[in-house]
Specification:
Blueprint lengths: L25 H11 L11 H14 L8 H4 L2 H18 L15 H8 L19 H13 L3 E2 L9 E2 L1 H14 L6
Antiparallel strand pairs: 1-2
Helix pairs in contact: 1-6, 2-7, 4-5
């Protein structure tokens, strides 16, 4: 007997299923969560991303030639930093069977391994597809939470980058101080 499926949906195969938000409701769930429990994010148990994302914004905003536009921040500028951060975590844990707790891990664990094995040095610009959102984990999960926590303020213009509050700037500077003796700074 043939199995019937509803005619109003497409049939999915394992090859069709990529990512973790198949119904596209993750962003809405995050919004509801922020309304009900402000400042709590369920996608990670590591607070380091708050300081890391503040640092990326601070670095971008304070570059002498920065256009300070959201369009120039999205994509290559942002993703290169986040990818390097993800790969540094991967390098630290690469001998384990699974990389968890990092943006780009989980279902994307195979991507981190593939990127890591792609060569030495790793050309970051060749791997900016590691995360679908043009603002990576910041755009997908953290930005609303960071605004709720008082780390980010709305941009002065819809086309400009988010502003850091005094708290966000202090957190960015603290992150910068922790990496100032590393090769990454």
């Amino acid at each position: 007997m043939e199995t019937l499926i509803p005619q109003w949906i497409a049939r999915f195969t394992n090859e069709d299923v990529i990512g973790e938000d198949h119904l596209g409701v993750e962003g809405m769930a995050q919004s509801y969560q922020q309304y009900l429990v402000p400042g709590i994010i369920s996608t990670t148990d590591h607070a380091r991303y708050y300081s890391f994302y503040c640092w990326i914004l601070y670095r971008y905003i304070n570059q002498p030639d920065s256009p300070r536009t959201l369009a120039a921040f999205r994509g290559q500028y942002f993703k290169r930093h986040e990818l390097a951060f993800m790969l540094s975590g991967y390098a630290h844990h690469k001998d384990r069977n699974y990389l968890g707790g990092l943006v780009g891990s989980g279902v994307g664990n195979y991507k981190a391994r593939r990127i890591w094995d792609s060569g030495n040095p790793i050309a970051l610009d060749n791997h900016l597809d590691y995360f679908g959102n043009s603002q990576g984990g910041f755009g997908q999960y953290y930005r609303p939470v960071m605004q709720t926590l008082g780390l980010l303020a709305d941009p002065e213009s819809p086309r400009w980058i988010y502003r850091l509050t005094h708290r966000g700037e202090a957190l960015a500077k603290a992150f910068a101080a922790t990496i100032e003796t590393t090769d990454y700074s």
